[in-house]
Inverse folding.
């Protein structure tokens, strides 16, 4: 997949590109709804012998358009988004730098420069997609703005249990710790990338060594608590339990520092500095403060057994 960065004005010429079918959207999460839009563009491209393409934007428009500075945490930060889109078999990924100048484009200007001007012959987007200044361009106006140069498909909303599959809904589920429900909308477990860093090594002292994970990017973090997870380290997947929270048993409430710690089952070794991936499967319990080390170690063992039972059960169901 060719990744092409565009900054307005992009200066690229139509003749540089072969005809293509383009999926338009921000695509945070690359969830099942997004996959439906991207699949529509790829299907059209395959039918016509064109290239398939996706156009997304960076940073999130709300960072530029909001009145106050906003720090956005993503379900799929840009690097993860690239990886997932490439897995869908797309030829081109256009990443448009979302700036004030770009946001000020009138709908016709956007179409002329970023669709017609890139030799796009078919556009696929969600039924509620908007474009141009103040989002004045809609899927209903796209026919007029196309100047007859391309066709388009407005992809109907995808529903799961009578609710629209959306990035907003997935964030709500993750915020509530409902990672299994979020995975139903994503079509895969929620995944975080990070690096193993040094911690205070308390887990090792009580018989449950943990890998302390520092996220590589602005990943949206699930609700604090203890989760059954899988962690990919040194080219292998391992099962484990993850605590995301403020470790109230050890830390002063006056100095809360969020940590992500994974106790990996049946694993020993020095993995400091290793890049890892963490897949979140189910929340086992909320964060708790314990009255001493003994009480904590008993609970960690319970958490471990719950996670082992969970992974055994999904293996029996053929879902692991």
């Amino acid at each position: 997949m060719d990744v092409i960065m565009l900054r307005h004005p992009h200066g690229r010429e139509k003749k540089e590109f072969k005809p293509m079918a383009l999926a338009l959207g921000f695509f945070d999460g690359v969830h099942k709804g997004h996959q439906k839009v991207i699949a529509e563009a790829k299907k059209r491209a395959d039918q016509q012998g064109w290239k398939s393409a996706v156009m997304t934007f960076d940073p999130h428009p709300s960072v530029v358009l909001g009145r106050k500075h906003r720090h956005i945490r993503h379900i799929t930060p840009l690097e993860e988004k690239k990886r997932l889109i490439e897995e869908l078999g797309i030829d081109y990924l256009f990443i448009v730098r979302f700036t004030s100048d770009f946001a000020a484009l009138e709908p016709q200007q956007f179409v002329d420069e970023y669709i017609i001007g890139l030799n796009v012959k078919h556009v696929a987007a969600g039924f509620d997609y908007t474009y141009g200044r103040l989002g004045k361009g809609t899927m209903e106006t796209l026919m007029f703005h196309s100047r007859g140069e391309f066709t388009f498909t407005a992809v109907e909303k995808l529903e799961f249990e009578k609710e629209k599959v959306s990035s907003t809904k997935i964030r709500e589920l993750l915020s509530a710790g409902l990672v299994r429900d979020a995975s139903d909308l994503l079509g895969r477990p929620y995944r975080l990338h990070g690096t193993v860093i040094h911690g205070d090594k308390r887990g090792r002292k009580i018989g449950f060594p943990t890998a302390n994970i520092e996220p590589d990017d602005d990943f949206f973090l699930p609700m604090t608590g203890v989760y059954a997870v899988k962690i990919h380290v040194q080219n292998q997947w391992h099962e484990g339990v993850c605590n995301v929270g403020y470790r109230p048993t050890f830390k002063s409430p006056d100095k809360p520092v969020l940590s992500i710690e994974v106790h990996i089952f049946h694993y020993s070794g020095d993995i400091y500095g290793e890049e890892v991936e963490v897949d979140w499967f189910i929340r086992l319990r909320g964060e708790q403060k314990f009255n001493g080390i003994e009480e904590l170690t008993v609970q960690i063992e319970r958490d471990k057994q719950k996670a082992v039972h969970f992974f055994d059960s999904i293996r029996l169901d053929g879902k692991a």
